[in-house]
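As a warm-up, study this chain.
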Amino acid sequence: MTENWVDLEHEFDLVIDYDASLWLEIPPRWDAESWSDIDSWASECAELFWRSHAQDPGESGIAFLAGTLRRCADAFAPERFDTRALLHIASPTSMPLPVFAAVRPAEEEGEREAALRALVQAGDPDAVEPPVVEMFHTENLGEGVRALRYVRQDDAPEVLAGLRYAWHDDEIATDTVLWTATDDVGQVIRAAKDIEKLAHKIQIRIWDVHPED
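Now compare it with the structure written out below.
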């Protein structure tokens, strides 16, 4: 039997205790076993989601949602083991909103608040107005920053709405970012409370890659 190995660039990743009635996690591309059966994943999740909402899917509801989930998987499945991709699905008939979380070795040096503002792109020159930037605290990740910004697109007339959270951990020298962006501004606003709840459920897991015998 051949085992699937992941090239560990560092020794930590994320654990997210999400509400399965609102969120669906996309299998990562590096998990070859899960990705090889991605069509079955999409079909099974679509059926379970319709069932959990106690709604009648009709003749095409399950197949339509399964196709949407498959396209989301193709577009958003993470390549790296330290990145998670989830879909916020308010109902079986709503368009999923992709939300991403990642933890990486800290890159920004210097003043903490300035580094966090950089992670949430608070100084984005393409923003149509100054982003709304607020301090944000969670029990698991500590003090962080949240920013909501609206950005012009080069190839489309619609404004892009972006919501980002960022935290820095001095002890293990990591940056954690949670983000989403879409040209459906209303979708981001409607999902904002659920994304905030999700932020409180994120924690960093440190891998013991050299366990003692």
